[in-house]
Amino acid sequence: MTETMLKINTLHQLSQAPEPFTPGEPLFWDDPHISKMMLDAHLNPETEAASRPPEIIDAIVDWLITALDLEPGAAWLDMGCGPGLYTSRLARRGLSVTGSVTGIDYSRRSIAYAQDYAAEHNLTIEYRYQNYLTLEDTARYDVVSLIYGDFCPLSPENRASLLARVHRALKPGGRFVLDVTTPVLRARWQSSPRWDALPEGGFWKPGPHLVLERGFAYPDDVYVNQYIVIEPDGTQTVYRNWFQDYTPERITDEITAGGFAVSALWGDLTGTPYTAESDWIAIVAARAWPDHRAGVNHKVRPCLSPAHLFRVGLHHPFR
Fold first, then answer.
1. Which CATH superfamily is domain 35-183+245-287 in?
2. Using only C-alpha atoms, what is the Rg of the chain?
3. Deepest in the core among 131, 218, 284, 286, taking most CB within 10 A?
4. What H or E segment, with its residue span, contains residue 194?
5. Residue 26: predicted pLDDT
6. This prediction's pTM
7. In whole angstroms, what separates CA 234 from the centre of its chain?
8. Which residues of 55-80 are buried (b: 16+ CB within 10 A; e: fewer)?
9. CB atoms < 10 A from the CB of 223, how many?
10. pLDDT tens, 143-189?
11. Residue 84's pLDDT is what?
């Protein structure tokens, strides 16, 4: 009875709102089962749970290559590249012929898939298994991209650290490309408390388990989707997906504080004009001059004007 009560008390404690950006289970991206489910989601064109549909990725790559107006020999780094959906398209567009394309990701399974795909299709792409929060490259890239809201789950400290690392990794005049979610999107997709019993296994575990899901909203447009996973032996694992949603003012201030110049914002990475109803904000920011931290002197290159139009979906919670 004492053991049962202890588990219930633990479960009660876990179900309370955590402090902002308190991490959940650290073994996530490289978990043998979760990484397989994540890769399947990346490669499934019928879901936007991990990646956008192929036609949207095509449109993003097309617009970025045009908007960035890259010179021959340009070097591109895609952080959180997954199975190489963007890097492979960039290589096919010729970037790896005169320049270079690099992808880093914290999932061994996704990196292995990307490497195999590149070899099979004769694409010259450098892939590295790496947490991009440990990026140490210096003045190597003309473009660094972080696509599909991957900036949003990071804590304020990790976001500041990442901006510093990206700044260091870019060449003078290089651009940082990213997109972030807005409170408009979150208002439609907040999680209601729910539970799912999965006798045949699911996203989080291969065997039977119970998932208790709940979302918590915080001031300043911070939100978390929390999943408490309970296995038949009573083992409880907590997974948390944090989100910092952004207004144009907030993301501009944060990126500028990181040493970048934001010349324009869009409603997505195909150049849709931003409006107050946009689900996303897309940013192309130049490594700014002057760089008071590093003493670097260079000019800022502006972005081009908007192009195509589309609507994007949401990272749906995994169950």
1. Vaccinia Virus protein VP39 (3.40.50.150)
2. 20
3. 284
4. strand 194-198
5. 86
6. 0.88
7. 32
8. ebbebbbbbbbebbebeeebbbbbbb
9. 21
10. 999 999 999 999 999 999 999 999 999 999 999 999 999 999 999 88
11. 98
